[in-house]
Every structure is written in structure tokens, then in C-alpha cells.
Amino acid sequence: MCGIASSIRDWELMVAYSAKAKSDPSLDPFVFTSANLLEAKLMGETGLVHISDQMTKLVDNAIGRDYAILPLITARTRKAHNRYVRKSELWERLYMALFGGVALVGPMLIMVLYEHQLTSILTVSICVFVFALLMAIFSTGGSETVLAAVAAYAAVLVVFVGTST
After folding, report:
1. How many CA atoms lie within 13 A of 144 on its CB side?
2. What digits encode the pLDDT tens for the residues 3-26?
3. pTM of the full predicted structure?
């Protein structure tokens, strides 16, 4: 248990340094940096940093010379990963908002435009079934989570049916 708490503290320390550093990698001790050409080449070969093909040729040509042509090569793997995670979470939230809006507004529009009890019951039944199927396929939660989401969705539609008839 102590290892988990230590890992969380370490992660929080890394995030704090990353926030302080902003765009200056020299202030973040957890970011790989090098002004040495051999180190830069090794970091590129091991995958710690991404070096373009043109930059690799320059590094290969400059090794063994007295001058450095690269002022600083920086690996921003953690920052890039965090940026990727934030962007993917944003897109996931947007997709879920769109899906939720269509899943709720669509059946309600059908039930308002075609005011018949059979239409309302069929619309609710079909939409709840499709919603349950999509939740089972795409949800990362357990079976309890899927059941709770489907029950909440069905309750909203049933309440709409009850108030509209």
C-alpha cells in the first residue's frame, strides 16, 4: 500500500514541476534534455525523443567535430502524453454530449410530433433497447454501470411519456 501512496506523491511532484516549467524544459528535472550530440543521437535511437530525419543527418555529420549544431534537444514525452490525454478526453466528452442529446431529444421529438400512445410506447421501447445495446458495446464500466445508465435513460423517457399523455 505504501508503494501506491509513494507513486501518487511522485506523480504529483512531477506534475507540479511541469506546471512551474511551462514552456522552459530546463526548469523541469523530469524532462530529458541534451545539448551533447552523442547524447541526442542515443536518445533519438532509443525512442526517448523524436528527431526528424533532417536533424539526424545533421547530428551524424557533426559527431566528431568540435562544435555543436544543436542547442538543445528536448523530449516532452510526459507533456505530450498529458496533452494527448486531455485532447482525447475532450473529444470523448463531446461525443458523449452529442450522443446524449440525440438519444434524449430524438425520441422526444418523435413522441411530440406523433401523439399516439402506441407510437410513444414503441419509441421508448426501441430507443431503450438501442441505448442498452450501445452502452453494452461501448461502455468501459461494469454491468452495474450499464444497468444504472439504461434504467436512468428509460426513466427519463417514461416520465416524458407520462407527462405528455
Report:
1. 0
2. 777 887 887 887 777 777 766 766
3. 0.50
Q: How many residues are there in the chain?
A: 165
> Which grid cell is 47?
525512442
Say if residue 41 is exposed, middle or buried (CB neighbours under 10 Å; 0-12, 13-18, 19+): buried
Of the chain, the end-to-end C-alpha distance in Å amounts to: 56
| Distance of alpha carbon 38 from alpha carbon 62, whole angstroms | 10
At 135, list the grid cell: 452502452
Give me 117's grid cell.
Answer: 400512445
Distance set, CA 69 to CA 31, 57, 60, 72 (Å): 21, 11, 11, 9
pLDDT for residue 153: 93
**How far is the C-alpha of 144 from the C-alpha of 53, rounded, in Å?**
50
Instruction: Give the ranges where the chain is alpha helix by DSSP (H).
Output: 2-21, 37-46, 53-62, 77-113, 117-138, 143-164
